[in-house]
Amino acid sequence: MLAKLSPFFGRHYVSTGRMIGSTPVADAINRKLEAYFQPIHVEVLNESYMHNVPKGSETHFKVLVVSQKFEKLPLIQCHRLVNEVLSEELKNGVHALSIVAKTPDKWDTTFMTEKSPACRGGFGK
């Protein structure tokens, strides 16, 4: 596995999937993404703190997956694959999942995803 660094989420993470301050759900998401996609880079960010949920919740996530398995697939199919791999988590507590799916040739190590918008309370209030 390549050991690239990317500024995804405004922080640097090692592409081996090791996460700073990881938690049980984030760990499960990371393990499943690693096992299925065999990515050259994967990142999992728990964004639950940005929402109106109890402290320490694991309900809102953003993931970046860079994998050859996305080659020649339309973006919607890439997202469907990620959702399928994480179907158990999505049925059992993960409320929101933001996905960035890239092929190795489309991934730029200087890529920065847009910051997620502030939570508006679930009903846009």
From TrEMBL:
It comes from the Eukaryota. One of its GO terms (cellular component) is mitochondrion. Belongs to the BolA/IbaG family. This is BolA-like protein.
